[in-house]
Design brief:
The chain has 639 residues and is an alpha+beta fold. It contains 12 helices and 18 strands. Helix 2 (27-96) packs antiparallel against helix 3 (101-111), helix 2 (27-96) crosses helix 5 and helix 8 (379-446) runs antiparallel to helix 9 (454-478). The model is unreliable at 147-151 and 163-170 (pLDDT under 50).
């Protein structure tokens, strides 16, 4: 289980690494790669499907062709039988008119190949004539056999009706296939064949009680097969093999070495066992053939063998190979053309993108006079025109910003000078103010309550304290003291700040609501400076809420979990929209004369920014203000 998990992890890492590699590739490379993968996959699928279809069509064509060949062979055999029927009918007619039997035999063998002719007259006398072949080149000749035993010669069953029972219909000549056993073959003067002799026979009645019988043994004979082979309309006749079967054994074939062998078991089962034609691939003498077989039936309708014709599978394999090679070559040519077009298309498409990237780089370097020149009317052309318009707008905005910056810098320089002057003045008057405040406070403590000068002295102490506060804020704004950062929980800082803020008079008439996070929210900060910020925000909120109002302080993490948020919200009158963008400006205040220096938020923002944070303000006129301090969160305690 662990090994499987490790393997899945390795596969996942490999997939991610491959995806990163692809993402780092240039756009042009990714376009070419995508099109190449698309072309290769579609072409491969097309080649596979096409070759399968063509291969199936070649197989179907081969089956159709050999089926046609088998029908031609059957028609040749049927034509031979029909010819024998006509000849034997003519023999019977002439014999009835008294023609010499030997002359009839000679006439018959000139019309059709035959091995024997049997003529039996009405008197029961039988004349058996065999066709002798002294040599392959000699013409056949008739020889009369007068020896005993001829009386036992009789026509095959179902060829002629039983003697004495012929009707007019029965007197017609018939032809068909008969299988002669050894006894019948000897009685006809034929050579005994192993397993029997398949013989084409034709017979006709003579004068109601006699008959004429003409026969041709098919064992070992290829003339019918050769004739069928010659009728086949193909240039590769030498590859064809035609065969006659007695049962499932070959008794004649255009390939002599096949005689005596057995047929494919599946073929024999289909043709002989079920009496159905067969067309397809068959095993012939340890080779695969596209072949077709038809059953051969005897005169009684029983299946006694079959005829087959076929061609070696290599003949059609060559056709299949040529066809698939041509098809694959065409697809490969299309792929090469597709690769070339993909390369050119990627150049055409990526070139404008490269120009845009170059333009962006030049503009980023400050060359605002650069223009991207893409004249096409497509999306890239629109993008180029939009880019040029953007650069023109940036140039105009840059010019305006430069003018504004120069004026602002001038104002800032003046403000800095004023700030330095104010800091110097504050520093110079700080010591006298301290002395005045100390002496007046000491005098106030010693002065009796009934002294009429006491009221004036209290005013001096109050206003001197306010002046010292203004001076202290000016000094804090003008200079930055070093921060002493440490990892602290912001919730603890808030609690300490609340304890400190409760000592101010303005907090006595305001309700404080707290909603602190139950989880520790650690930040790396100076807690004293954060207390100063939060105290300032609480006092501002209390002044805005007024007597009987409330201020809510809450802590939480942001949605990402990487920052800490401290919110101080009041339900006061809010900040007008026209002032919301100026609240952090130094010396800007909405509290009125004598109620604020306008430095509190400026100092607080400076402190928070020194802690890599920021302050956000949301306010709605008449509905209160929410100030949010955002600081980076420390997820692990730093040592």
């Amino acid at each position: 289980m662990e090994a499987q998990r490790l393997k899945e992890m390795r596969d996942r890492r490999f997939g991610f690494a491959l995806l990163r590699l692809v993402r780092r590739m240039p756009l042009r490379t990714r376009l070419v790669l995508a099109f190449v993968i698309l072309i290769l996959s579609s072409a491969s699928a097309t080649i596979a499907i096409g070759n399968s279809v063509f291969g199936g069509k070649v197989d179907e064509l081969a089956r159709d062709v050999v089926t046609l060949y088998s029908k031609l062979a059957s028609q040749v055999l049927d034509a031979r039988l029909e010819r024998m029927r006509l000849v034997v009918k003519d023999v019977a007619s002439r014999r009835a008119d008294g023609a010499d039997a030997l002359a009839l035999c000679r006439m018959a063998i000139t019309e059709v190949p035959a091995d024997f002719l049997v003529v039996r007259g009405a008197d029961g006398a039988t004349v058996l004539m065999t066709v002798a072949r002294d040599g392959a080149a000699d013409a056949p000749r008739c020889a009369t056999m007068e020896a005993g035993g001829t009386a036992s010669v009789s026509p095959p069953r179902d060829l002629l009706p039983a003697q004495g029972g012929q009707s007019e219909k029965d007197n017609s000549a018939k032809a068909g296939i008969a299988v002669l056993d050894a006894v019948a073959a000897r009685s006809l003067g034929l050579t005994q064949q192993d397993g029997g002799s398949m013989t084409a026979v034709a017979g006709a009645p003579i004068n109601g009680s006699g008959f004429a019988l003409l026969g041709y043994v098919l064992n070992g004979r290829v003339d019918i097969l050769s004739q069928a082979q010659q009728l086949v309309p193909t240039q590769r006749k030498e590859r064809l093999m035609a065969t006659l079967f007695l049962g499932d054994r070959r008794i004649a074939s255009t390939k002599p070495e096949a005689v005596g062998t057995r047929a494919d078991a599946g073929v024999a089962e289909t043709v002989i066992g079920k009496g159905m034609p067969f067309a397809g691939v068959a095993r012939v003498i340890d080779e695969n053939f596209y072949a077709a077989y038809v059953p051969i039936r005897d005169l009684g309708g029983s299946i006694v063998g079959m005829m087959g014709i076929g061609t070696n599978e290599d003949a059609y394999a060559e056709v299949r190979h040529r066809t698939t090679t041509l098809f694959s070559s065409l697809i490969a040519g299309g792929m090469i053309f597709g690769f070339i077009m993909t390369f050119l298309f990627s150049m055409w498409l990526v070139s404008p993108v490269g120009q845009l990237a170059e333009g962006m780089s030049r503009v980023a370097e400050g060359d605002l006079n650069y223009k991207v020149r893409i004249e096409s009317a497509d999306e890239l052309g629109k993008l180029a025109r939009a880019f040029n318009q953007m650069v023109r707008a940036v140039k105009e905005r840059d010019h305006r910003l430069r003018e504004m910056t120069e004026s602002r810098l001038s104002a800032v320089e003046k403000q800095i000078s004023v700030g330095r002057l104010a800091a110097g003045v504050a520093h110079e008057i700080n010591n006298p103010l301290t002395a005045i405040l100390s002496l007046s406070s000491l005098w106030l403590k010693k002065m009796p309550e009934t002294d009429p000068r006491r009221e004036d002295l209290e005013i001096i102490v109050t206003e001197t304290s306010r002046c010292r506060e203004i001076v202290r804020n000016l000094l804090d704004f003008a200079r930055e003291r070093p921060t002493e950062k440490q990892v602290v929980d912001i919730n603890k800082v808030v609690r300490d700040t609340l304890v400190l803020a409760n000592k101010y008079d303005s907090m006595e008439n305001v309700a404080i609501e707290t909603d602190l996070s139950p989880l520790p929210l650690r930040v790396n900060a100076d807690p004293k400076l954060l207390q100063q910020v939060l105290t300032n925000l609480l006092l501002n909120g209390a002044e805005a809420a007024g007597r009987g109002g409330s201020v809510r302080i809450a802590t939480d993490e942001d949605s990402s979990g990487g920052f800490v948020q401290v919110q101080v919200a009041d339900r006061g009158k809010g900040i007008p929209k026209e002032h919301i963008n100026r609240v952090f400006e130094p010396f800007f205040t909405t509290k009125g004369t004598g109620k604020g220096t306008g430095l509190g938020l400026s100092v607080s923002l400076g402190i928070v920014q020194r802690h890599d944070g920021t302050i956000e303000i949301e306010s709605e006129d008449g509905r209160g203000t929410t100030v949010t301090v955002v600081l980076p969160r420390v997820t692990e305690v730093q040592s």
